[in-house]
């Protein structure tokens, strides 16, 4: 969260797996209720309905404006940032993002979706918030995560932003993004999870909880049977090999380029990939994109745009 001339800038990374702000990360899951549910700790109240946040899994949709979920999750993200600052009321400028090749075509619609109510009153974790939405600026995913260091990137670089739903690829030459060389694919880490599920059903005729699969993908290990661990690791290695195949199809050459890996998929590349360690940089900051959105929004406001 940033403050500029009385406006609170809040960056929100609306991912399919997790929603992130500069200071928070929570699962992109939401269940709606007409009456107050039994467990209410992670509960949003808005316009007479109740929502438990972090429940379920958000299905991939091509346009984030197709339902109310990302709007409601953005309200929660705002509340978390305001709570950290000891605020319950603020004039908020949202700084958000969309997949690289979707930004130009969808940014106006997404901004309108997030700002359709200029004044919003809602309750999060029993605390009421009164928010004045003064605008929304939409930036390209992938670039936002490295925006603060882009000017220091010399030579030819490739940024691979691997999220839960999509993989965004952007070439940067001497710090300048190459608008003609950016790509978005529906090949996020959830595709790997689905592949692991399918492998277990095909080979063992049983299911494994997503939480176990995710544990192995993140840490490379888990307290499970050796055979199960071997199968998950094998599928993950195939998935990462496919990532590099796709990058090479887009023009990646590890001998002449530096690869920057951002997003949740970075742990898969690190744990299961074969890559040039001297020419690969992992953006470790979990909330890098949300912080990048705030950085870009602040710079744009200071420039009077």
Describe the structure.
With 305 residues, the protein is of the alpha+beta class. 34% of the residues lie in helices and 30% in strands. It has eight helices and 16 strands. The protein has helices at 69-84, 103-114, 143-146, 189-204, 210-219, 226-249, 266-272, 288-302, and strands at residues 2-4, 7-11, 13-14, 18-20, 25-27, 30-33, 43-46, 49-53, 89-98, 119-124, 127-140, 156-162, 167-173, 176-185, 257-262, 280-282. The strands form three sheets. The protein has an eight-stranded mixed sheet. Strands 14-13-12-15-16 form a five-stranded mixed sheet. Strands 3-4-5 form a three-stranded antiparallel sheet. β7 (43-46) and β8 (49-53) form a beta hairpin. α4 (189-204) packs across α6. It starts with a strand and ends with a helix. The model has no long low-confidence stretch (mean pLDDT 95).
Summarize the entry for a quick read.
Helix content is 34%, strand content 30%. The protein has 305 residues and is of the alpha+beta class. α4 packs across α6.
Question: What distinguishing features does this structure have?
Answer:
34% helix; globular; alpha+beta; five-stranded mixed beta sheet; 305 residues; 8 helices; eight-stranded mixed beta sheet
